[in-house]
Amino acid sequence: MTSIDNFLTLVNAEIGLNLGKEDIGRDFDQLAGWDSLHLLTLLTALEQATGHSVSMPDVLEATNLEDIYDLAVGT
After folding, report:
1. What are the domain boundaries of the chain?
2. C-alpha–C-alpha distance, residues 1 and 36, integer Å
């Protein structure tokens, strides 16, 4: 995962939503069509894309996609 753009491409491809950069910081409940299954799908896709595991407890505490991106890239 080299950039937020790559992350967003992965999110849209894996989840099937059409999210833009303006959606990265929005709370999950503000994302049209978002549900908890998307979180699990995204976690699996991120682990495959990055080659390392991402902490499920940390992901469950995330309030938006930016939080998850930070967890995935280790920032």
Report:
1. 4-73
2. 22
Pick the CATH number of 4-73 from 1.10.1200.10, 3.30.70.3450, 3.30.70.240, 1.25.40.10: 1.10.1200.10
Look up residue 7 and give its amino acid.
Answer: F
So what's the pLDDT on residue 75? Answer: 53
Residue 1: predicted pLDDT:
64
Q: Are 14 and 65 in contact (CB under 8 A)?
A: no
Locate all alpha helices (DSSP H) within 1-75, ordered by sequence.
4-15, 36-50, 56-61, 65-73
With contact defined as beta carbons under 8 Å apart, do 6 and 50 qualify?
no
Structure tokens at 35: 């549900």
Compute mean pLDDT per 10 residues along the chain, 75 residues long, and list them.
88 93 96 91 92 92 95 79
